[in-house]
Design brief:
Blueprint: H1 3-9, E1 14-18, H2 29-43, E2 47-52, E3 61-64, E4 67-71, H3 81-93, E5 100-104, H4 112-117, E6 122-125, H5 138-154, E7 157-160, H6 163-173, E8 178-179, H7 193-198, E9 205-209, H8 218-228, E10 234-238, H9 247-256, E11 260-264, H10 269-277, E12 281-284, H11 293-301, E13 305-308, H12 311-316, E14 323-324, H13 328-339, H14 342-359, H15 362-377
Parallel strand pairs: 1-2, 1-5, 2-4, 5-6, 6-7, 7-8, 9-10, 9-12, 10-11, 12-13, 13-14
Antiparallel strand pairs: 3-4
Helix pairs in contact: 1-15, 2-15, 8-13, 10-11, 11-14
Length: about 375
Amino acid sequence: MSLSADLHQAKTMKFAILGSRGFPSTYGGYETLVRHLAPYLVRQGHEVTVYCRGRHEGEKIWFVDGVRCIATRGHESKSLSTLSFGATATLDASRRGFDSVLVLNIANGFWFPALRAARTPFVVNTDGIEWERGKWSQLGRAIFRMGAWMTAHNATALICDSEAIGTIWKDRFGTDSTFIPYGAPVPDEIGRERLDSVLQTGEAYLLVVARLAPENNVKLTLDALELLGEEAPYAVIVGSANFDSPLDARLQELQATGRVLWLGHVHDQRLLTELWAHSSVYVHGHSVGGTNPALLQALGAGAPTLTLDTPYNAEVLPFAEQRFPHDARVLADRIRSVVSSPPLQEEMAQRGRAIVRERYAWDDVCRAYMDVLTSLAG
């Protein structure tokens, strides 16, 4: 821990977190981080405000687990949600005299001059390479590129959740970042009560947990299952899209065959953990981004995991035999090998849990964030 962090930990600091959907939320990676970090900071004796996109029972300000939640206005749509809610949250935060602020999502870079004008120090989690995500139009990608430039030139400090992302920002913008990954739990015992309530078959199953965005390559997994034909394991797909996805119709057709169960978005974290823990193979096809929270959660729960071979995923899972190229035939072969070998499944499960236990503990992650926030306040 830094000397500055040591000095400030003794007194109450006022921190804010903006750029997520709110607290508590289970929507995605940002929300997973906030769900762990905000209560942690409160337990350390600090005042924590999280900006939210929706009101609670009509209230603009409310408290959950000691965390103050503030709802600001915005336009809920694929294109304007981040920009509009980010603008109102940033302007509000610039007037409240916070000691330091954590900002999530580089698209908020357009509004950072307000925090600078208020002399409020802030650190930005740069997350993945948003301007490469397939779900965005050319205009959307241009907005994220400009937001990244504004972030690099205005933020007091940057946090990267993978070392590969930090290298990209260094090469592209000449800015240094503090590496802090996401975290995940490693539960001791995982039952299957929730799992049995949604899964009517007791057979082995393949699992996918991903938003139905092009860069998450759910289509690649479905293609591999089709290549396997009658050898294909039963498949459970968790995920939805906040825009029209061509995968919707395909998943509905596959579900009608009785060999695929499409659950859509699942809020229930206990159900997700049980799904990961009892799967025969978990396929993680995410291609754009840093350390992915779903990948860490899967490994921590003991899911035998195959992941797309990217620099980000390789940082987390260094075993080449557990990574696959963007090739449905290769993926089909890997799926066949894992599903047919319970000893291999157990070996992969133990590897994953050890990785999370040693490198991605939530207490370590939250402590690192607190050190950055208190150092900025100093």
